Amino acid sequence: MLTPNEYRLMAEECLLWARQAHSDDVRAPLIELARIWTEAAAKTDGSAPITPERGFPPRPSRETQKC
To answer: Which residue range forms the structural domain that includes residue 33?
Structure first.
């Protein structure tokens, strides 16, 4: 199992890749993956959950996601 800091490093790397992405089709999954890594860190160390106010955009609804 990874440590919370290792989860957060993975999230930071995903966000770096997302900032460098040339399209939303690439950027959105990277942001979602960063959110998942950060949530894993929060669950592991009991820190506050991720919210849009803490740096992540809201998750797209199923209706707005591409099939």
So the answer is: 4-54
